[in-house]
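Figure 2 data, in text form.
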Amino acid sequence: MFKTLTLLLTLAAVSAFSPLRQGTRATSKLTSFEDFYAESAAELVENWQDARPGEAKWGWGPSVQAEKWNGRHAMFGWVFLCASAYAHGHHLIPNADTLLDIKQLGMVALQKDVQGQGMVAWSQERAVIFMANIHFLCVSLCATIAPLPWADPLLIDETHSSYDRLMAREQEPFGYLPEIKTGLTEEAEIINGRLAMLGIFVLAMATAIENKNMLDIINDWVGGLYYV
């Protein structure tokens, strides 16, 4: 029941970062809520652009560019979390429960105990997962600093070959609920990204409330599919 209520409460809040895409609604007439949402979102974007013109120029803040990349990172996060749960359940990480040697690694091998009992050593499994995250973070930073010509840049760069396309997309945001288009479409990416961001938020809340690690919660959500 708690998970359902959390999902419903956060669903309306997550999508409040992109104004309405005109002409792509499945319904012919906007409801009063959608009118209010469109006006509020447009005012939010305008205030942000006036207050932070430098950041807005690069696509930071309430923009289509920011929403797409946040959604992409959230979707990748779910792939990584599920892969980590699978690796944990199938013992793919050798000596997973072995603690790191504090004498060899020093303070790097220590982490704060979630139960408030001081510092404890990292397990080898946790260290492998952490370093894999660091690796992908570095790859992401490299893609940001030197984006490939055929790929979407993280920022709206005037010198990038996709600049005109990105600016045109900013003029037609996706709105509260994008048009349902299956396949490899921008609408599908936005919806999947919003669901992934919402899922990460609910997962973080569940972790804090239930005092359990994320892998155990994910495994519970799928009925113990990854491990017993």
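Caption note: Residues 1-30 have pLDDT under 50 and may be disordered.
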